[in-house]
Amino acid sequence: MKVAVFYSTRTGNTRRLAQGIADELSAYAPALIDLTQLQGPLPAADCYLVGYWADRGRADEHAQHFLKQLTGQKVGLFGTLGAYPYGPHARHIMQAAEDCLSDSCLLMGHFLCQGPVDPDLLRRMAADKPVAPQAKTRHTIAATHPNQTDIQYAASLFKERLQHQ
Ligand SMILES: Cc1cc2nc3c(=O)[nH]c(=O)nc-3n(C[C@H](O)[C@H](O)[C@H](O)COP(=O)(O)O)c2cc1C
């Protein structure tokens, strides 16, 4: 059983999560591939784990584009976002990412966790209007993810499915 881990990232959070998952799944000798650097044929693997970052309510464009090309593949999804990984916003993003997959693909798990939001974006938001205390708390918590617990949880989610293939 071989695994390939793909990721898209703007500020590095999703790369950190992808790297951690690849390290935890070392038994599957995973290739770790930046979707923006993808060239030539896709690596042969029994399962593709694909990481995205949340961009305006959806998976980012690179990840969406890649997911839409896959057919007949086992696919695990993971991603980072600024919002909490539960609640309607996160659920909407997860569903939108899953909707990119053709019916011929088999979903092997889906994991989301927070990641620090680009400080430039936070500054622009603060300049626009005062940041509510609850949003400040959310940003403070986001800045502590992805952490080791996130990595281990995501990896164990995928491991469990991979062990039963
Ligand atoms: C342009 C932009 C749009 C974003 N849109 C969302 C969003 O819709 N929902 C959300 O929860 N986080 C959003 N975020 C936060 C990022 O998804 C989050 O910081 C993520 O961890 C970034 O991952 P990366 O470091 O791999 O690029 C946005 C960030 C940026 C810069």
Describe it for me?
- By secondary structure, the protein is of the alpha/beta class.
- Helix content is 42%, strand content 22%.
- It has helices spanning 13-24, 61-69, 88-99, 119-128, 133-142, 148-163; strands spanning 3-7, 31-34, 47-55, 58-59, 74-81, 106-114.
- Strands 1, 2, 3, 4, 5 and 6 form a 6-stranded mixed sheet that branches.
- α1 (13-24) packs across α6.
- The chain starts with a strand and ends with a helix.
- Flavin mononucleotide (FMN) is lined by residues 9-14, 53-57, 80-83, 115-118, 121.
Bound molecules: flavin mononucleotide
Largest sheet, in brief, is: 6 strands, mixed
CATH architecture: 3-Layer(aba) Sandwich
Order of helices and strands: EHEEEHEHEHHH
CATH topology: Rossmann fold
Structural class: alpha/beta
Q: CATH class, please?
A: Alpha Beta
Helix content: 40-55%
The total tally of domains equals 1
Secondary-structure blueprint:
Elements: E1 3-7, H1 13-24, E2 31-34, E3 47-55, E4 58-59, H2 61-69, E5 74-81, H3 88-99, E6 106-114, H4 119-128, H5 133-142, H6 148-163
Parallel strand pairs: 1-2, 1-3, 3-5, 5-6
Antiparallel strand pairs: 3-4
Helix pairs in contact: 1-6
Bound molecules: flavin mononucleotide.
Any descriptors?
single chain; 165 residues; alpha/beta; Rossmann fold; 6 helices; 6 strands; 42% helix; globular; binds flavin mononucleotide; Flavodoxin; Flavodoxin_CS; Flavodoxin/NO_synth
